Amino acid sequence: MIIGVPKEIKDNEFRVSLAPSGARALKDAGHRVLVEKDGGSGSAIADAEYAEAGAEIVSAKDAWGADLVVKVKEPRPSEYAYFRDDLSIFTFFHLAADPSLGEELIKKGVTAIAYETLEASDGSLPILTPMSEVAGRLSVQVGAHYLMKTCGGRGVLLSGVPGVERGKVAILGAGVVGENAARIAVGLNAHVTMLDTRAERLRRIEEIFGSTVSTLSSSAHNIELSIKDADLVIGAVHIPGNRTPKLIRRDMLKTMKQGSVIVDVSVDQGGCVETIRPTTHSDPVYEIDGVLHYGVANMPGAVPRTSTFALTNATLPYLLMLAKFGPEKAVSIDAAIKKAVNIHKGRVTHPGVAIALSKDCYPL
User: Fold this and answer.
1) Catalytically annotated residue among 94, 191, 238, 344
2) β 285-288/291-294 pair status
3) Taking 90 as the threshold, does the pLDDT of residue 75 lie above it?
4) Phi/psi class of residue 310: alpha, beta or left (left: φ > 0; alpha: ψ in -120 to 50)?
5) How confident is the model at residue 243 (pLDDT cuts 50, 70, 90)?
6) Among this protein's residues, is 94 annotated catalytic?
7) How many independent structural domains does the chain possess?
8) What percent of the chain has pLDDT above 70?
């Protein structure tokens, strides 16, 4: 099979979907790998490294002409011209937050295989997980930055100092993003509260962090109390394929501290804050009712080298299977890949995506 690796063109997206080690593994398995010129430059990977691994350095057009295109982020409108009915794309799609992309994929007959809905038998999301780990850890780092007065925030140091109260962090969601956000917040010595509807997740948090993290059952009442007291709020909610529920309403903002910060990691699925909208690394924040909102939808792109190698580690086993058998046969062999297929032959095949796009679902 021919695998194409285009250069990412989303605003300040420096990751690349395949490290040279992945290209080498595909080449050794008998496949051709076409990497767009300078595709890895944002992650400090030179074309020569790909060439040494057996990949061919090509134009964007040639990379998109492959049988299977592997990306990091969802295709941008300028890339829609490459769509065709014999093309499969393996990437983060987050179609719930981008229905126009969904319509284009349906119209052109593209097979859309989404990292974020690839689900293992134990319910874990093996490709989303490493990027969620990166985003969760970054969320506190970013929030601490924007809490500085010079960056528009309240002027709070999350760690505090002897004799001065520590900063307060509220994390909505105790999944992978939330757990990793808690690790960094606890490491900074902040006062951390985590909310989730799942008692088993809260038990896990208490087992990991003990008394350094306070846990609360997620309800409208407890969310209101937590964000009112917080300096930094992290949105860490995820529902595979579907839009994220709005847990923080516009009217709640007026109860929050002036200069407090919201970092909504779930913005790529619509966000859990009513007032959140996608932003970019070049223009990351905006203010509503005195609260700073950070809505960058590709947070791991800020640390591309780490993210690129972590992503390749996660995707490569599935990529090798897709390349060996082709998508249609691979879904009959691997149930995780089957769940990753969002759209095939002009039809929506994932239940969550179908709900989000208001389409009928045609399971594979």
Assistant:
1) 94
2) antiparallel
3) yes
4) alpha
5) confident
6) yes
7) 2
8) 100
Token pair recorded at residue 73:
């982020």
146 and 212 share one domain: yes
Q: Which segments within the chain are labelled E, that is strand?
A: 2-5, 32-36, 56-58, 68-70, 88-91, 111-114, 168-172, 191-196, 213-217, 232-235, 261-264, 285-288, 291-294, 341-344, 347-348
| Residue 171 structure tokens | 């994390």
Q: How confident is the model at residue 285 (pLDDT cuts 50, 70, 90)?
A: very high
**In the 8-state DSSP scheme, what is residue 245?**
P
Any idea what the CATH number is for the domain that residue 316 is in? 3.40.50.720
Gap between the Cα atoms of 260 and 279, Å rounded: 18
> Is the same domain home to 58 and 137?
no
pLDDT of residue 276: 97
7: its two tokens: 């250069």
> Stretch 94-115: mean pLDDT, rounded?
95
170 lies in some domain = yes
> Do 224 and 107 share a domain, yes or no?
no
Cβ-based burial of 116 (10 A; exposed 0-12, middle 13-18, buried ≥19) = buried
Residue tagged active-site, from 196, 264, 268, 334? 268
The identity of residue 261, as a single letter, is V
Same domain, residue pair 241 and 333: no
User: What digits encode the pLDDT tens for the residues 42-58?
Assistant: 999 999 999 999 999 99
Residue 138 main-chain phi, psi, to 5 deg? -65, -30
Question: If DSSP codes are grouped into helix, strand and coil, which group holds residue 273?
Answer: strand
pTM (two decimals): 0.87
Q: Which domain holds residue 36?
A: 2-124+303-357
pLDDT score at 199: 96
- Do 134 and 92 have their domain in common? no
